[in-house]
Amino acid sequence: MLGRKSKNLENYEYFSKAAFSDIEANERFKEKLDFLSLSQIRRESVNDLKEIYVQNRDYILSNFYSRLLEIPEFNQIINTYSSVERLKKTFDRHFMSLFEDELNINYVFTRRRIAHTHARIGVLPNWMLSAYTLINQLIVPLIVKACQRDHYKMLDILLAYDSLVTIDQQIIVETYIEIQGGSVVNGLGEIIQYNVQLDQIKDLLQFQEVQQKDVLQASELMEQLDTSIEEIAASIGDISQHTQISLEELNSDLSSLQHVTVILQNTDEGQQKVQQDVAHLVERVNSVAKLMELIKGIADQTNLLALNASIEAARAGEAGKGFAIVAEEVRKLADGTKKSVESINTDIQELLQLTNSINQLTKNSAQALHEGVEDAMQVYSTLAELNKTLQTQGARFEQIALTTRQQAVSASEITKRNKNIAQSTVRSKQIVFETGEAIYKLSKMIDEYRSTTISKNFIISQEDIIELTITDHLLWRWKIYNLMLGFEKMSEQDVGSPQESRLGQWYYGKGRELFGGERVFKELEKPHFEVHEIALNAVNAYNSGDKDAAEQYLQKLAEVSFTVIEKLQELQKIILHQKETHMK
Q1: How many independent structural domains does the chain possess?
Q2: What superkingdom does the record give (predicted)?
Q3: Is the dihedral angle over the CA atoms 107, 461, 582, 83 positive or is it negative?
Q4: d(CA 408, CA 411)
């Protein structure tokens, strides 16, 4: 029987002045045990509590879940994710663990697993505390009833139960706070990490700078082009006008050329006729020459006959004297005829030579004139075709002149718009600068909110502390980046030392205590120091006006910073793996 005779309670004292519990546990759990002064001796009172629970198990579970099902939120969650019978078995195992399990790290993680499960399905921490209150309302009367004859025992069991349930609640509430803290750390961390990845602002500002120069240069060139187009339009207009005049003159000249061609054709035909007449003249002169040759032959024969007659008259003597005179006269006549014929023949030969020369010249002249006429006709035909083409081109030239004038108007409009673009580019550059500055201010506001909220209201797990250091690290590099953009001012003192940063304080404090033996933890120290050294060089270079060197240091800082983050994430995985072994 649990009951025994009641004693006077005036000297009863459950509160312990001992500062420490004699139960061994990990650091955070040990703090709770020490605060409640829960000892092995008091732990023994739980055995009586276990007996009370086992005797009333069905009563407690039935009434507890009946009450939960009356609450709409619990009813929905129970029917969505499980069933009453399954939950009764789970709850029974949990309550038995209160009485049977050792208060160690596994005990803690069993409660943490419960908190994680309920948080995942949407059970709020105030509902969890309400559920514990319902359990208390069921169990406390049972304890009082079982120990009503022994008030000392009753108080021991009640207070032992209260200590165990308080530890349970503390672990669960702490886990909820840790989950919420992790959510805030990771949520704000993700926002900040996304924010610090907006490192295109520098590139965008540089692009805007180049774009502004290009637009201004393009505007100047467009103004020059506008002037040139106007000059070209004016020149083309003048050329078009002169071209039209020249084309009209060409039409007139072609008409004259056509008239000359007709005259040349008529002349050619007359020349052909002259050539034919000269040829006939040459033939007649040749005929006369032949006749003179015949007459000369007759004269020669007559002279020979006269000579023979003179000889015969001389032989005849006096009787042939008259004949001799006649023969002499005939001979003289024949000689005269011969001389006349020779003189005529000489003139005819000269005339023949002259007519032959005239004939050849006429022939050559006719041939040349004929070829000239053909060439003139070909030239006229070609010029006529060229004139047709030029007339077409002239019409096109007029169209080109009109188009050029229109282009000149368009170019003037483009120049005007380009000036507006140049002004917009200047404003765009200012907007980009203001946007970058606003993004940086926003990241600082988020970080201030994160730091203030986390430092005052949350319990942070080791993996979330590492997440905080990663975010701090990114923000710190982001601060150097914004220094280069002119959004931040930093001095050598602002950089600080590796030991003073959040990562440094954790690394040389709690981190070394918990993970000092890990390989990756040891590998983290060197790049952590390098980051601070490079950042210091970047700040000094920028403040001394050497922006090129500062840019190089910033690039190197990004590379080393990436190594630091890799090491921290690897260490984070080790912590999560260790937790998973306890949460299974």
Answers
A1: 3
A2: Bacteria
A3: positive
A4: 5
Q: Is 22 helix (H, G, I), strand (E, B) or coil?
A: coil
132 lies in some domain: yes
**Tokens, residue 63:** 């009434």
392 within domain boundaries: yes
Q: Say what angle helices 151-196 and 27-36 make with each other, to 10 degrees.
A: 150
Per-residue model confidence as pLDDT tens digits over 137-146 = 999 999 999 8
Asked if pLDDT for residue 493 goes beyond 70, the answer is yes
Compute the distance between CA of residue 470 and CA of residue 424 in angstroms, rounded to an integer.
Answer: 40
543: Cβ contacts below 8 Å, ≥ 6 apart? 490, 491
d(CA 296, CA 573): 147
Total length of the chain: 584
Domain of 579 in residue numbering reads as: 459-583
Q: Are residues 333 and 278 in the same domain?
A: yes
The residue to which tokens 């060139």 are assigned? 221
What is the phi/psi pair of residue 140, to 5°? -55, -45
Q: Indicate the pTM of the whole model.
A: 0.48
- Residues of 227-244 as b/e, b for ≥16 C-beta within 10 angstroms? eebbebbeebbeebeebe
**Residue 496: which region, alpha, beta or left (left: phi > 0; alpha: psi -120 to 50)?**
left
Listed in sequence order, the residues at least 6 apart from 146 whose beta carbon sits closer than 8 Å to its beta carbon are 2, 3, 52
With a pLDDT cut of 90, the percent of the chain lying above it is 5
In a shared domain, residues 264 and 411? yes
Contacts of 253 (CB under 8 A, 6+ apart): none
| 80 and 138 Cβ atoms separated by less than 8 Å | no
Q: 14: pLDDT confidence band, cut at 50, 70 and 90? A: very low
- For residues 55 and 189, membership in a common domain is answered with yes
Kindly state whether residues 259 and 123 are assigned to the same domain.
no
- Residue 358: per-residue pLDDT: 74
Alpha-carbon separation of residue 449 from 179, 422, 456, 460, 467 (angstroms): 18, 40, 11, 16, 16
Residues 223-241, mean pLDDT to the nearest whole number: 69
Among residues 151, 126, 11, 1, the alpha carbon closest in space to that of 73 is found at 126
CATH classification of the domain holding 121: 1.10.490.10
Residue 171 and residue 266 share a domain = no
Is 188 found in the same domain as 55? yes
The answer to whether residue 152 sits within a structural domain is yes
Name the token pair of 526.
């060197």
